[in-house]
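User: I've been trying to design a sequence by hand for this structure and keep getting stuck. Would you show me what you'd pick, starting by listing the structure so we're on the same page?

Assistant: Good idea, let's start from the same input. This is the structure you sent:
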């Protein structure tokens, strides 16, 4: 949704290729687009293998690729797009940290961080995967977080009493089990008894939630992506130590600082570009300060995070500007007077001398393949969304006085 909707709003046609594990999601989105009145073919859901997807990127007249998935998958997409001069946005691995400062609203932080860790059974790109808590709040935070986690009900997601569903497949659950088991061998301590979750069994996609303490950064569970219902909690002595640990991973994506009042967390977020601050929810504690029972949410929503501007980070979490602050969308064509490398230099576009100082370049021409590059028969009946620009897609110099010039 974060890629499809902006692309459509910017005037693009979209080909949506979903994971082979969730094919119905793409089909339902295409059906919804048709029901909303979008022109036929503006949003197409297709089913392709990884090899066919790479061929489509290499050989179809595509202007931009937005990919969400694994680091290896992102590398394959980048390889397929190399040499074609098209835009590529990659949302890849994440090891999203959170820091609870000494002045944080404890009830508010516990409820939302536990929810953020186990939302969708931990299978969320922006889910919380590691938590750092100031020493003054650490013991109470851990006690409350363990109690709330133990209250989850693991079961059939169609059952109204279920608050934690299965993972996407059994092998994904086994990966998380292995990461947790490795941390325990290295000295971590598990706070949740798996036996208290009857449905949690090896060889199935059902996996009990787990909270780990006595963890450190020698353990994969604190530095590499888990993407499942397990989270490590680590005590820190200062804001500076927390920020250093939050940035001590090649997988960033999002981050959060939970605090009371004051401007210091905002300054930390501004000064360290990979630490983002959560939007405060409208009612602190979500009713917990009124004596209501603390329990897992059935349909939880993780706290939304916003990235400071500039919002582009490049490492193993990928590259791009999705969900960043106000800026021109990467899906949009360059404004008039701009080319592939930014604004025209002085002396171009009528500002300088000479009869050949203007270049005619149709909007987004720099992202198109010239017609001289033959296109093979397109797979799956797909066709280019628009004809090639005049002149076979090649730029040509024209006199400045030529009235046919179009940006």
């Amino acid at each position: 949704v974060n890629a499809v909707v902006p692309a459509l709003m910017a005037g693009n046609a979209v080909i949506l290729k979903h994971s082979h594990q969730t094919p119905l999601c793409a089909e339902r989105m295409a059906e919804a687009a048709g029901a909303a009145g979008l022109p036929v073919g503006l949003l197409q859901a297709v089913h392709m293998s990884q090899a066919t997807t790479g061929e489509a990127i290499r050989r179809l007249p595509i202007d931009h690729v937005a990919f969400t998935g694994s680091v290896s998958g992102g590398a394959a997409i980048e390889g397929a797009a190399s040499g074609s001069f098209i835009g590529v946005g990659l949302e890849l691995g994440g090891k999203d940290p959170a820091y609870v400062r000494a002045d944080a609203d404890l009830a508010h932080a516990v409820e939302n961080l536990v929810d953020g860790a186990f939302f969708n059974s931990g299978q969320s790109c922006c889910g919380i995967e590691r938590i750092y808590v100031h020493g003054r709040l650490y013991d109470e935070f851990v006690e409350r977080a363990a109690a709330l986690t133990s209250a989850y009900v693991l079961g059939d997601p169609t059952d109204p009493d279920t608050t934690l569903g299965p993972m996407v497949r059994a092998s994904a659950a086994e990966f998380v089990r292995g990461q947790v088991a490795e941390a325990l061998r290295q000295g971590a301590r598990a706070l949740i008894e798996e036996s208290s979750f009857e449905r949690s069994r090896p060889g199935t996609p059902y996996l009990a939630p787990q909270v780990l303490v006595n963890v450190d950064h020698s353990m994969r569970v604190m530095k590499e992506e888990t993407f499942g219902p397990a989270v490590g909690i680590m005590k820190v002595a200062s804001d500076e130590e927390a920020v250093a640990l939050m940035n001590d991973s090649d997988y960033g994506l999002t981050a959060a600082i939970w605090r009371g009042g004051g401007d210091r967390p905002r300054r930390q977020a501004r000064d360290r570009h990979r630490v983002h601050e959560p939007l405060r929810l409208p009612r602190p504690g979500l009713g917990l300060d009124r004596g209501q029972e603390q329990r897992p949410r059935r349909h939880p929503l993780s706290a939304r995070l916003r990235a400071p501007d500039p919002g582009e980070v490049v490492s193993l979490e990928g590259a791009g500007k999705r969900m960043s602050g106000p800026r021109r969308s990467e899906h949009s064509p360059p404004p008039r007077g701009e080319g592939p490398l930014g604004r025209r230099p002085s002396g171009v576009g009528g500002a300088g001398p000479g009869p050949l100082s203007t270049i005619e370049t149709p909007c987004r021409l720099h992202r198109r393949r010239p017609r001289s590059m033959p296109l093979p028969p397109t797979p799956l009946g797909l066709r280019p969304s628009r004809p090639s620009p005049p002149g076979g897609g090649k730029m040509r110099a024209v006199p400045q006085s030529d009235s046919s010039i179009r940006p």
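That's my pick for every position. To get oriented when you compare it with your attempt: Residues 135-150 form the longest helix (16 residues). Confidence is low (pLDDT under 50) at residues 272-294, 297-314, 334-407.
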